[in-house]
């Protein structure tokens, strides 16, 4: 049984999220998604939706076997509990593969790190970014 981990903020789900999770699932038999705590999202605007709602929506997707809310202080605590064989990073995630591989090694976790593919829009009006969805809401309803 090969366990895979994918992770992200997953605010206001869109087809890019579904693509990422479906791609990550192809790396093994069981996909675990870790949903970032809003308090830990510091590299961009905080999510609109609550931690639990984002976790519940990710858990409802076919590709996902289990969705976990992330740890509030140490991102390697859920990894130690899940004990994955592979962590699949999103195509544009700022995390560095080598830094994560080194941190996993320091903790004695035997797990490789891969990078998912991106997904291009399939029609003119398709939005594949939470930030773009929010911009459109503000433009049309603000
Ligand atoms: C291996 C790994 C494990 C993570 N675990 C957690 C966690 O336990 N708690 C958390 O709040 N964030 C965790 N994160 C960080 C968030 O998922 C991070 O904010 C996320 O990568 C942001 O990506 P996004 O901007 O693509 O949504 C983890 C990231 C990685 C790479
Ligand atoms: N178009 C896409 N193709 C493939 N993966 C995507 C796409 N959009 C987002 N993802 C992946 O989904 C995961 C979670 O993305 P995140 O929650 O940051 O959403 P986002 O829409 O990219 O956000 P924002 O627009 O606020 O930057 C990340 O790993 C990201 O790489």
UniProtKB/TrEMBL annotation:
Domain of life: Archaea
Catalytic activity: FMN + ATP + H(+) = FAD + diphosphate
Pfam families: CTP_transf_like
Keyword Transferase: yes
EC class name: transferase
Keywords, alphabetical: ATP-binding, FAD, Flavoprotein, FMN, Nucleotide-binding, Nucleotidyltransferase, Transferase
Cofactor(s) recorded in Swiss-Prot or TrEMBL: a divalent metal cation
CDD domains for the chain: cytidylyltransferase
The keyword tRNA-binding is assigned to this record: no
EC number: 2.7.7.2
Domain Cytidyltransferase-like: 6-135
Position of the signal peptide: none
GO MF terms, alphabetically ordered: ATP binding; FMN adenylyltransferase activity
Binding positions for ATP per the UniProt entry: 9-10, 14-17, 92
Pathway annotation from the record: Cofactor biosynthesis; FAD biosynthesis; FAD from FMN: step 1/1
A GO biological-process term: FAD biosynthetic process
Function: Catalyzes the transfer of the AMP portion of ATP to flavin mononucleotide (FMN) to produce flavin adenine dinucleotide (FAD) coenzyme.
Homology family: Belongs to the archaeal FAD synthase family.
Subunit structure: Homodimer.
Protein name: FAD synthase
Organism, scientific name: Halorubrum halodurans
Gene it is expressed from: ribL
